[in-house]
Structure formats: C-alpha cells, structure tokens
Amino acid sequence: VVDMAVLLGYEPQAPKLLSIAAYQEHPGDTMKLGALLLSAPPAAIIVGNEQACSLPDYPETWEAYSLSCFGHQGDAIPVLHLGRIFSEHA
User: Fold this and answer.
1) What's the pTM value of the predicted model, to 2 decimals?
2) What are the pLDDT digits (tens) for 20-39?
C-alpha cells in the first residue's frame, strides 16, 4: 500500500479510500497488484493530446513516478507510472 503524499515528500495523508491497481511492467508480463491510499474517489475523464502539459515544478519527485501530465480545470494532473511506484527499485 502506497501513500503518494509520502513518496512526494509530504506528511502521510488521512486516507478515506484504498484503491487496488493492476498493472504490467511490460506487455505480456504477469499482472501485478498494488494499492494506493486516496483522499477522494477517482473520477473518469476524457483527455485529449491537446491537454498535454509539463509536470508540476513542485515536488520535483513527480518526474520519478509519472509517465506524462495533462491539464484539467486549471490543474496539472500527472499520469502515474504504476511500475515505478510499486517497484522495489523505486
């Protein structure tokens, strides 16, 4: 179970939810499982290429755990790389 706040250098959060994530390190690999602590339920949104943006400047550790980033309602939203987050090498 990962608390992104701690990975990003913040104090641990008071989670309200636990999200189970399934992912593959590489296509064809066995599925792996991880869990993220969430303060609010996730929301499904449609994202287009025109929304691509730079990662937030702070904290700088976003770069280590993100694939890319998109803008949504004035915020930069990092796209998480689950393999990097749950890897024992992260």
Assistant:
1) 0.82
2) 999 998 899 999 999 999 98
40-50 confidence digits (pLDDT tens): 898 899 999 99
CA-based nearest residue to 78, from 69, 90, 89, 88: 69
* Pick from 24, 6, 23: nearest CA to 15: 6
Q: What is the DSSP letter of 37?
A: E
Structure tokens at 48: 């287009």
- Whether residue 42 is preceded by a cis peptide bond, meaning omega within 30 degrees of 0, is no
Tokens of 77: 């939203």
CA distances (Å), 60 to each of 41, 55, 74, in order?
25, 9, 19
For residue 58, what are its two tokens? 């702070």
Which amino acid, one-letter code, is at 16? K
Q: Name 37's bridge partners.
A: 18
H-type helices in 1-90, by residue range? 4-7, 62-65, 82-86
